[in-house]
Amino acid sequence: MMLRLMGIFSLAFVETAVERARRGPARPSWSFGFEWVVRALRRDFVDMLGWPYPRVRADMDARFYPEKAVRRVKRTSDTLRGIPAVWFAPPGAMDRGVVLYFHGGSYLFGSTKTHADMMARLALASGARVVGIDYRLGPEHRYPAQLEDALAAFDALVERGHAPGEIALAGDSAGGNLALVAQLALRDRGEQARCAALISPWLDLTSSSASTRANEPTDYGTTEGLLRQARDFAGAIPLDDPRLSPLHARLDGLASLFIQVGDAERLHDEGLELARRAREARVDVTLDVLRDMPHNGPVLAEYHPEGARGAETLGSYLRACLSRAARAPRPRESSQRPGDGESAHRA
Known about the structure:
By secondary structure, this protein is an alpha/beta fold.
């Protein structure tokens, strides 16, 4: 694994040097180092497209990820109705608010290991405990397995004494998709989280927006690769089905939404269109566009100040969202605490 990554970064270094000598930085604020990282991520994505997904997952879980934020929080393993989960508790965490986090990875890979830095940063920025789950992945487990796991985790938190209004949903990329479809499902059963924060959400699996092509040179991955992954996840379900592409879903009655996108990423237009449609449906929407950032800006917080700002802005939103829970009547206390686990299993 290390030799492959060293080769990818070496080639990306040379390509970055050649391209910057020819036309300058790809975006105004991109340093050589940041552009090198983005180019290496793109090459890595393309290289793995032909791999079986179990190999992709194993490779990504075995990598080194930034630990600076993770070292500042208390990390605890848990299960929520049989679903593996990890808690990230910041010093002096608020008593009642909790963030239920869904990792990205095209619904095919990714885990609480690959996204530990992201969840730790959110915990520190929001002051709330963040719990991420390892929901089932496709293509072995197709829709609605991921939604079932998200709702089961939400219900487990309620069973532990958190009122729905004390829970915020959050997720990046496919996890942003899952946070939205879970909130839609909760709305339909008459019970919602207090808010949902969507980071570079994957909202239209058809990849039909203009930014999909226009921003491909400044994003990692490829449009064709993303479409292949969408088909691998969706199976026989059409890619524009609102259950998979919530950009086309009915949005009225939703609780507050936070939508964050980079203006250099392929999913930029999807996020803006969701904000427009949600506002038309009278949903309270906060839209944050990260300047010069590719997909999932906060994940790149170690490499670009705008990514770090994105993580702080997201944390501030979640802090404000959950602070309103402190003014609500306190729910009945539960004797269970994170780490107790449950005897129930996944649906």
